Amino acid sequence: SEGPELCAPCVSGGYIYYMSKILREDGNAQNPDDYLSYVCRMSVEGGKEEIVFGLQDNYELLKFVSGGKLVTYIDGILYSIDIETKERTVIFDGKKEGYLSFGDYMSCLDGKIYFLCKTNSGMQSEYNNITYSYSYLMCLSLETGEAKRIVDKPIISFCLTDDAVYYTPFELRHMYIPEDYKEHPENVVVFLASPELH
Q1: What pTM was computed for the model?
Q2: What are the tens digits of pLDDT across the range 137-192?
Q3: What share of the chain is helix, strand, coil (3-state, %, to 5)?
Q4: Among 48, 52, 105, 113, which residue's Cβ finds the most Cβ atoms within 10 Å?
Q5: CA-based Rg of the chain, rounded to a whole angstrom?
Q6: Residue 23 to residue 5: CA distance in whole angstroms
Q7: What's the rounded Cα separation, in Å, for the pair 195 and 73?
């Protein structure tokens, strides 16, 4: 019940930040619902755990720590939380920006967050009639709050390094089309990535 969520810990300013569930006051240790989610920290040299911030619920996730701020994610919204003042600010609301959802992978470098956002537009396979949504690579500045697409075309995945962003464009490729695809469209095999790395 006290186990942390599936989030990697973050190291910043001499501390390691991580999520932890802590039993509420007068809670029942045998009841998982009596544990609340917190962001905690501890010196990288070791020592006593310190509670930094109580999260909205057990679905809010710690993503990054940068520039004295926690960055958390829940339900399509990225929040910035000042570690000292505890002030919470919405820094990106995917739905308000016209996106359906975030991709699973996010990266942070030099105060900027890189992530994929899925749209309601896409490409439909003529063989299985499934529409595959487009995702776009976004860059969000934690300092200015400005978010923008950094690649005009839809992409399927990316990897951030210190000096470049590597990405694979979206491309609907039919790897196998059975002769009876009209009767059994579930047997059509598609691959959504271009064979090229950019």
Answers
A1: 0.85
A2: 999 999 888 999 999 999 999 999 999 999 999 999 999 999 999 999 999 999 99
A3: 5, 55, 40
A4: 113
A5: 21
A6: 15
A7: 32
